[in-house]
Specification:
alpha/beta, about 30% helix, globular, 5-stranded mixed beta sheet, 4-stranded mixed beta sheet, 20 strands
Length: about 425
C-alpha cells in the first residue's frame, strides 16, 4: 500500500480589525451530505425556505471557494475538526455536549450506548458524523425523526456561529436551537487549534444573543451591529460593557432590523463594507422606508468607562458623524422594485477581500451594474479560477460568482466566510 504524506495544518495568526483589511486567512465549510439530508418536512425547521440541488451547490461553491484560494489561505472546518478530535478530552466533550444538545442519552441506541459508539470512531469518521448527522437503526423511512444526532444543515454559513473580533473570537449564542451545536465545533476549533481567547455573550447572560451576520468590525474602535431576530439588545449590551471595561474610547453603531420577512435576518443582508470609503446598502434602510420605517439607528459611545446612547438618521450618517468619508452603493440600483428583488437573494451581502476588492453573487445584475458604475471592475469567477484573469490588489474589483442554489439557502458571500486574519 502506498502511503501518501500530507502536510499538517498549521494555525495562522488570528486578528481582524476591519471588514476590508487585506485578507490573509479565512475559514470555510464545504456544503456536504448534510445538505442532501434536508427534506420538505424539515426544511423550515432547518431555517431554509426550500431544499437545494446538491450538484448545483457544489459547482457554485467550487467557484466561490476557488476565488478565495486564488487570494488567501483557506482553512476548512472539517479538516481542523479532525485534528482537534485527536485529543481525547476534546473528543469526549464534543460528543457528550452534542448528545446533550440533541437531547439524546447514551442508551438510546439498541444494544450499545450511543456515546460509546461515537467515541469508538476514528477522528475522520467522527468529524463527519458530528456535521452530517448519525442515523438511528430501524428508521421507518417516513418519519422525520431519522437521526440520533441531527445534521448541521447551516454549517457552511461559517460567519454566524463565531466572529473574529480583533484578536479574540466571539462564540455566538445562536437564536435558533437547530444551530446551537455549531458553536460547540467552533469553540473547540478556536480554543484548541488556534489557541485564542474566546468571548461569549450567553456566559454573561443566558438570554443574550449574538450572531456573526450582525457583527461588523468596522475599525479598531468601531463595531457596526444589527439588532433583530438573531442578535438582541442583551447581546449588544454584553459587547458594550466588555469594551467599556477595556477601552478608553470605543463606539458601537446599532441598526434595528425588521423581524420579518426572513431576508432581513442579519445586518449583512442590508449593509456590508466594500472598503474604507464605500459600502453596499439597501436604500429603504437608509431612508427608513417600507419595513424599515421607524427602525432606529443608535450610536453607542464609550468614553472612559461611561456608556452613552444617541440616535442618528442612518448607519451611513452615523459613520460620517464619526469622521468616515463613505459613500453607499445601492443594492439593486435605482429601481425600487429591483432593490427588493435583489436584496431577497443576498444582493447586499458582499465580502471584502481587501480595500475595494469584493466578491458577491453574479445573479444580482442591477447591483453588479451599480458597482460597475462606481468604478469596480467586474471579474467573472470562471476566469479567476482558471487563471485567465488575475485579481489585482491595486485596483477596485468585484469577483462575481454564480448563485442560483446557494442564495436559496438564505445567504451570500459574507455569510459563507469567516475571516480569521486580515492586515491592519
Amino acid at each position: 500500500m502506498r502511503i501518501v504524506e500530507t502536510t499538517p495544518i498549521k494555525p495562522c495568526k488570528v486578528n481582524v480589525a476591519s471588514e476590508y483589511g487585506r485578507l490573509r486567512g479565512v475559514l470555510l465549510k464545504r456544503p456536504g451530505i448534510e445538505v442532501e439530508r434536508m427534506t420538505p418536512m424539515n426544511a423550515a425547521q432547518a431555517l431554509y425556505s426550500d431544499i437545494l440541488d446538491k450538484p448545483t451547490v457544489d459547482h457554485e461553491y467550487g467557484l466561490f471557494s476557488g476565488i478565495l484560494k486564488r487570494w488567501t489561505d483557506v482553512y476548512y472546518v472539517k479538516d481542523i475538526l479532525e485534528v482537534v478530535l485527536q485529543d481525547e478530552t476534546v473528543r469526549q466533550h464534543l460528543v457528550s455536549e452534542s448528545l446533550r444538545h440533541d437531547r439524546r442519552t447514551s442508551e438510546q441506541q439498541s444494544g450499545e450506548g450511543l456515546f460509546n459508539t461515537l467515541m469508538s470512531m476514528d477522528s475522520g469518521q467522527l468529524a463527519r458524523v458530528l456535521i452530517e448527522g448519525y442515523e438511528k437503526d430501524g428508521w421507518d423511512g417516513y418519519s422525520d425523526d431519522r437521526y440520533l444526532l441531527r445534521p448541521l444543515f447551516n454549517l457552511f454559513f461559517t460567519r454566524d456561529a463565531s466572529s473574529t473580533v480583533y484578536d479574540r473570537v466571539l462564540i455566538n449564542s445562536m437564536s435558533f436551537e437547530v444551530r446551537e451545536r455549531e458553536t460547540l465545533i467552533y469553540e473547540a476549533i478556536f480554543r484548541h487549534f488556534f489557541g485564542v481567547e474566546l468571548l461569549n455573550a450567553s456566559s454573561w447572560n443566558p438570554l443574550a444573543r449574538t450572531e456573526g451576520g450582525d457583527i461588523h468590525v468596522a475599525s479598531p474602535d468601531l463595531l457596526c451591529i444589527g439588532e433583530g431576530i438573531r442578535t438582541n439588545a442583551k447581546g449588544i449590551d454584553y459587547l458594550a460593557q466588555t469594551f467599556a471595561r477595556e477601552r478608553d474610547h470605543f463606539n458601537i453603531l446599532v441598526q434595528e432590523l425588521p423581524k420579518e420577512p426572513e431576508s432581513f435576518i442579519h445586518l449583512d443582508m442590508v449593509f456590508t463594507f466594500l472598503g474604507s470609503h464605500e459600502c453596499m446598502a439597501f436604500e429603504p434602510m437608509l431612508r427608513k422606508q417600507g419595513v424599515f420605517a421607524g427602525k432606529a439607528t443608535t450610536l453607542i459611545s464609550i468614553d472612559n468607562g461611561k456608556i452613552s446612547y444617541r440616535e442618528v438618521p442612518s448607519i451611513v450618517d452615523g459613520l460620517r458623524l464619526l469622521g468616515w468619508e463613505i459613500e453607499p452603493v445601492i443594492c439593486g440600483g435605482a429601481d425600487s422594485w429591483m432593490q427588493l428583488r435583489e436584496q431577497w437573494h443576498s444582493g447586499a451581502n458582499f465580502f471584502a477581500l481587501g480595500d475595494g476588492q469584493v466578491m458577491g453573487y453574479r445573479r444580482n445584475t442591477h447591483t453588479i451594474d451599480a458597482l460597475d458604475r462606481a468604478g469596480f471592475d467586474v471579474l467573472d469567477a470562471e476566469d479567476i479560477v482558471s487563471g485567465k484573469v488575475v485579481m489585482d490588489s491595486s485596483r477596485k474589483f468585484v469577483a462575481a460568482f454564480p448563485g442560483s442554489e446557494l442564495p436559496r439557502a438564505g445567504g451570500g458571500a459574507r455569510c459563507m466566510t469567516m475571516p480569521i486574519w486580515r492586515d491592519q
